[in-house]
Amino acid sequence: MHILLIHQAFAALDEPGGTRHHELARHLARQGHQVTVIASPVSYLTGRTEKSKVRKTIDDLGVTIVRSYTLPALHRSFIWRVFSFFSFMISSFINGLFVKKVDLIWGTTPPIFQGPTAWLLARLKGIPFLLEVRDLWPAFAIAVGVLKNKFLISLSEWLEGFLYKHADHVIVNSPGFIDHVKSRGADQVSLIPNGADPAMFDPDYDGKTFREKHDLAGKFVVLYAGAHGMSNDLEVVLNAAEHLKNLDNIRIVLLGSGKEKPHLQSLARERKLSNLLFLPPVPKLEMSEALGAADACLAILKPIEMYKTTYPNKVFDYMAAGRAVILAIDGVIRKVVESGDAGIHVPPGDPKALAEAIRDLASNPSKCERLGKNGRKMVENKFSRDELAEKFTALLESLWRNND
After folding, report:
1. Residue 328: what are its φ and ψ, rounded to 5°?
2. Are residues 205 and 288 in contact, defined by beta-carbon separation less than 8 angstroms?
3. pLDDT-based confidence at residue 14 (cuts at 50, 70, 90)
4. What Cα–Cα distance (Å) separates residue 53 from each residue in 29, 347, 368?
5. pLDDT, tens digit, for every residue of 193-251?
6. CA-to-CA distance for 315 and 322, rounded, in angstroms?
7. How many CA atoms lie within 13 A of 36 on its CB side?
8. Which of 285, 126, 260 is nearest to 201 (CA)?
């Protein structure tokens, strides 16, 4: 089977960003399937054209990655981001027309604008269209205040419903998404949750090299790894750091990039937060070293009702690395962390509670270690990437066979 994935924010294992799709594509390749990915050369984390200058690459397992023109405007105004999305929608459609002998189109959202490309290519080629929903867009954009124009909201919601209704199958990465997509027209829906590959992480690794490089030796390190955007509410982390300024043994590390990072760095300088360290994003292949240097890891989102539906990828990576999770997110992911006794939940948007949770773990290393071990076991038993990839592969093969 030849699978074509349309994914603007695709990141390979040697690039910063979420690599769920490259990991799934490589699993499909190991099962003997051919996978072609049409992706953007513009980093979704930084907004810069910093990925491979080579238009077409093939990884060691034979996954083909085609970089399709995208206007580099992701970190500018909302309208410029829309132009960026549309540029990829058009260029990826043109490139998709030239990918021959495809058996299934795999589309993913957000950005939702690449969904019509995947749908139209599937219909023109007469093959199944699988739609993957990774975020509830536009609902999240409306809830956080990014999308306000009534006409654009109506248009986006119409497009969302159109894609759900016209997909041959819809998959979601969180159980919290199921009711939403069904209520808007999705018929056949499957859950393939986010997870992690335990083999990528060594829970016994102490991250000594990383600690020495960044002057973290002897410190209790809390690491946040991921996007620095509006939804991530990282100003709360700065406020928590303010509460911890007098504890010289604690360091908070914010690793990643995003539109809000320059603003956050400016605030940290103004407040003289010497217990806070900003680091650039690293490729997934180097995340084991970064997470190994942490004592605990932080996942945080704004206190918005819609975010209770999410299964953030980073939480599963944290647990796979055997690190205690400090979770400033409520809802379905809280159930995962608490059912596995893998971390501490704090109310989103509460810097004092966050500071107290950090202080608690820093003063109780045995508890921190126990939570980390529990999280590792949970990933191995319930959220292993290989097992989830097997389920995903079986779904794609079923769609393919039923189309013959």
Report:
1. -100, 50
2. yes
3. confident
4. 24, 43, 43
5. 999 999 999 999 989 999 999 999 999 999 999 999 999 999 999 999 999 999 999 99
6. 11
7. 22
8. 285
**Nearest partner of 355 among 236, 270, 263, judged by Cα:** 236
pLDDT score at 95: 97
Give the residue ranges of DSSP H helices in 114-149.
114-125, 139-144
Q: Where are the alpha helices (DSSP H) in 207-260?
A: 208-213, 235-243
Identify the CA nearest to 132 among candidates 287, 18, 252: 18
Burial class (CB in 10 A: 0-12, 13-18, 19+), 394: exposed
In percent, how much of the chain has pLDDT > 90? 85
Sheet strands side by side (includes 250-255)? 276-279, 250-255, 220-225, 296-300, 324-328, 343-345
Alpha helices in 126-185 (DSSP H): 139-144, 150-166, 178-183
Pairing of strands 129-133, 56-58: unpaired
Q: 150: which residues sit within 8 A by CB, 6+ positions away? A: none
The reply to whether CATH 3.40.50.2000 applies to domain 2-192 is yes
User: Percentages helix, strand, coil for the chain, rounded to the nearest 5?
Assistant: 45, 15, 35
* Residues contacting 126, CB < 8 A, separation 6+: none
Closest by CA to 371, choosing from 257, 288, 278, 294, is: 294
Span(s) in the chain for CATH 3.40.50.2000: 2-192, 198-382
Pairwise CA distance, residues 400 & 404, whole Å: 7
The domain defined by 198-382 folds into Rossmann fold (3.40.50)
- Nearest CA-CA partner of 37 in 3, 72, 71: 3
Task: Write out the E strands in 168-235.
Answer: 169-172, 189-191, 220-225
User: Do the strands 56-58 and 64-67 form a parallel or antiparallel pair, or are they unpaired?
Assistant: antiparallel
The more confident residue out of 51 and 44 is: 44
